[in-house]
Amino acid sequence: MNRIDAVFANGQKAIMPFIVAGAPSLEECEATVIALDEAGADIIELGIPYSDPIADGPVISATMHRALEQGISPHNIVELVKRVRPKIGAGLIAMVSHSIVRKSGGIEFIEQLSESGIDGFIIPDIDIAEAEEISAFCRAKELSFSMLIAPTTPLPRVQRLAELSCGFLYVLARTGLTGEQQELPDLNNRISEIRTVTSLPLAVGFGISTAEHVKNVHAIAEAAIVGSALVRRIDNSDNPADAARQFVQEIF
Asked: Domain for residue 250, yes or no?
């Protein structure tokens, strides 16, 4: 059983913070990952910087842009994971554009990240046909592979995306871009509908920003993904690791 499956095996509710890998620097990012683990994060999502983020709002997009300006590359992230993996117990998920995967060697790049200590992958812009190869590879290597379910995704397509996934499904709370929100949509019916076609754990993201949001998500799903609110807190702090630790303690 890999780390991701182990998180969900006993029915616990998980917190999944998202950070931009390599930001604000490789050293500070490593310290931040360790701090998130110490604060109780179950799974840490590392967003590999990309010049054209798929659905990221202004906070995450700006942080990725700064990381790229500093020369952060996919290879840097592989090395970062190698250094931090022995120091933490939390699961590590790579959120990475399919464009980066292709440019970095395809399955070979996925395998490099796996060997460095990554426990699973989210490739938000991959299509079903191209996802089949990576899905099969992840199953063979006992890695998680999570497809995204939008509020508008028809149920037959949800079922197909679930068949390609292992570990958990990523359920978008809303359409549009990521970013902090005051209110969380009523997701009860949508979550119930998704559960008619899959038994996979469900992780909800996009706009999860507060302790109340996390509580509401945990009432209906297995994991809450928090991104923009955390990235903003890190960006605005002189001590990113302490800011990340405090944020997780506040919301969970």
From this structure: no
- CATH number (domain holding residue 155): 3.20.20.70
pTM: 0.94
Q: For residues 140 and 110, what is the distance between their CA atoms, to the nearest angstrom?
A: 13
**Nearest alpha-carbon partner for 204 in 232, 236, 181:** 181
Which residues are marked as active site?
45, 56
Instruction: Give the angle subtended at the CA of 155 by the CAs of 153 and 159, to the nearest 5°.
Output: 105
pLDDT tens digits, 69-116 = 999 999 999 999 999 999 999 999 999 999 999 999 999 999 999 999
- What's the domain count of the chain? 1
For 42, the domain range is 3-245
At 12-38, the pLDDT tens digits run: 899 999 999 999 999 999 999 999 999
Position 43 in a domain: yes
Tell me what the mean pLDDT of segment 126-133 comes to.
Answer: 94
